[in-house]
Amino acid sequence: MILKSQVEWALHCCTILAGLPNGRYLSTKALAEFHGVPKEYLSKALQSLSQAKLVDSTLGPSGGYRLSRPAAEISFLDVVEAVEGKERTFVCNNIRTNNPCRPKSYCEAGPCAIARIMWEADEAWRASLRSVTLAALIQTLEKEIPVTLWQSSSEWVLNRAG
Amino acid sequence: MILKSQVEWALHCCTILAGLPNGRYLSTKALAEFHGVPKEYLSKALQSLSQAKLVDSTLGPSGGYRLSRPAAEISFLDVVEAVEGKERTFVCNNIRTNNPCRPKSYCEAGPCAIARIMWEADEAWRASLRSVTLAALIQTLEKEIPVTLWQSSSEWVLNRAG
DNA sequence: GAGTACTTACTCGGATAGACGCTGTCCGAGTTACACAGG
DNA sequence: CCTGTGTAACTCGGACAGCGTCTATCCGAGTAAGTACTC
To answer: Which N-terminal residues, if any, form the signal peptide (chains A, B) (predicted)?
Structure first.
């Protein structure tokens, strides 16, 4: 059970978009070039973000994507769920109903105890992702990344932002 | 990103094995019949449990599996990791190194900030699974399952235990 | 009655095949900004 | 200078193929318990 690489890409792209000046857009091409990933496949991830209403898109030249809300209001969970979907990581097929001793009249009350425990862990994972916003990520990045690299990167991005 | 159905099967099988009297074995065939799943494929899940040293196996007639430790010392995480592996659910491909502005001399210090956050959530998931033992599961099951069904099931199992 | 060979039932591992999702590429339709030509 | 047309750049969506993983099945090798058979 491993998350798609699109999740990684989407998170990195959101980071870049969060650093964009208000109202500016950045194209898929620029994002793909910056991260060294295939443009056409990256566009799938961005489409997922767009469908989830996390980013706005514009057509035409100097078009592209921008965050639809402030970075402080977008959590990691938002991005992960946009790409991976909101379904739980554990699905219960209710195999307990195959128990040969089970009377046909018997009707289960509530979900399987095993499923409940698995879903609880799933919720813990989501809660952890929900607690971190893009703004918080950028704050730690600003501390970790050398100033020169940070500046040259935002300059690179700005030159391509429409 | 969805867990294999083998995880569900393994958890249910461990529950049955945990209810077995000390030293008794239960065969793959009986476990498969009880849960209504294909015997040969279920055996893969049980082999994973065996490789992870969660269960002991015996060959020959009246052979099968039993827990290798008390149910109170086996957590959900043990079972899940036995089947799914211990790898983290998020893999960092370090695409930050593709940044065109990055000087070649520059060497990253420590893992990517995005990966760290994803791994923290992964750890929260695992911690939640680690906190629940098979013994605790059985305790809740005893409360929820009707006494008659509980008894007839353990009788069914005992008749097939070697 | 004691010892030995045989049968049976099971685990374990490898080989195999289909279904499905992920990865990655390609192309066409639609949209917008900009440049350019004509009045 | 203004208007209209054309072009370029981009998003979006669908179609498609390759690949690995998950699901599922089958078979053979090895092992242990029980049974029959021999001395």
So the answer is: none
